[in-house]
Amino acid sequence: MMDAEAQMQFLYTLRSKGVTDTRTLTAMEKVDRGLFVKGLFAERVYEDMPLPIACGQTISQPSVVGLMTQALNVQPRDKVLEVGTGSGYQAAVLSQLARRVYTVDRHARLVREAQSAFDAMGLVNITAFTADGSYGLPDQAPFDRIIVTAAAEDPPGPLLAQLKTGGIMVVPVGQSDAVQSLIKVTRTPNGFDYDELRAVRFVPLLEGIGQE
Ligand code: SAH
After folding, report:
1. Domain locations along the chain
2. Which residues form the active site (predicted)?
3. Minimal-distance CA residue to ligand 1 atom 16
4. Tens-binned pLDDT, residue by residue, of the chain (212 aa)
5. Would you say the pTM of this structure is higher than 0.90?
6. Of 89, 101, 105, best ligand 1 pocket probe by most atoms within 8 Å of the beta carbon
7. How far apart are CA 117 and CA 191, in angstroms?
8. For residue 190, how far is its CA from the centre of ligand 1 (angstroms)?
9. Which among 50, 86, 133, 156 has the fewest CB atoms less than 10 Å away?
C-alpha cells in the first residue's frame, strides 16, 4: 500500500501532467497500482512510467491512464468496454467511475492475473474475458464508452459499430510503434467526430488469441 507521502507525490505528478478532473483523480487515489505490478519493477510502481508485465506487455504510465480516463468522461450509469486488459489497472480505475466494465485481452494469463487483482480489491463490477478485442463484445454491445489500450492502424470498425450514439471512444492510432496519436471519437446522430488529443506510445493491437 502507498504511504501518505507517496500518495501525495503520485497525485501531484498526475496533476502536473494535465490530469485535473476530480473524479479521475479520486478514482486513481483509490486504486493501488502496486497490486498490478509484480516482480523486478515493483519498487518503481508509483513512478510515472510504463512498466513491463507478463506476456511481453506493459502497464501504461499513470499519467496516460489518467488522461485517457479523463477524456472518456465516464458517467455513473455507463457500461464501458476496455480492449487490452493487460495488468487490469486501467479497468480497476474505470470500475470506480462506471456501472460496469467489460475488459478483454488476447492473453489468457493476463486476464487470469488481472481477475485475481480485481478479486483482491473486491471489485465486482468488472467482467474480464480472453478474446480478440478488435471485434468488441457483440453480446454486450452497445457501449457508452470504449477505451482501447493498444495501438490500431485505424479505429476498428466493429468497435465504432458497438458505440452508442452520444458515446465516446478513446483509441491510440498509428501506423508504427514510434508515431501514434491518441484519438477521441464521439458518435453523433450523423456519424463520428474525431479529436486528436496527444502523441502516445502503446504496444500494437494484434489479431487473434495469444499463445501462452
Ligand atoms: N490497459 C492495460 C495496459 C494494456 S497493454 C493496463 O492497464 O495494464 C496492451 C494490451 O493489449 C496487452 O495486454 C495486449 O495483450 C492487449 N492486446 C493487444 N491486441 C489485442 C486484441 N486484439 N484484443 C485484446 N487485447 C489485445
Report:
1. 4-200
2. 60
3. 84
4. 678 888 899 999 999 999 999 999 999 999 999 999 988 888 899 999 999 999 999 999 999 999 999 999 999 999 999 999 999 999 999 999 999 999 999 999 999 999 999 999 999 999 999 999 999 999 999 999 999 999 999 999 999 999 999 999 999 999 877 789 999 999 999 999 999 999 999 999 999 988 86
5. yes
6. 105
7. 38
8. 30
9. 50
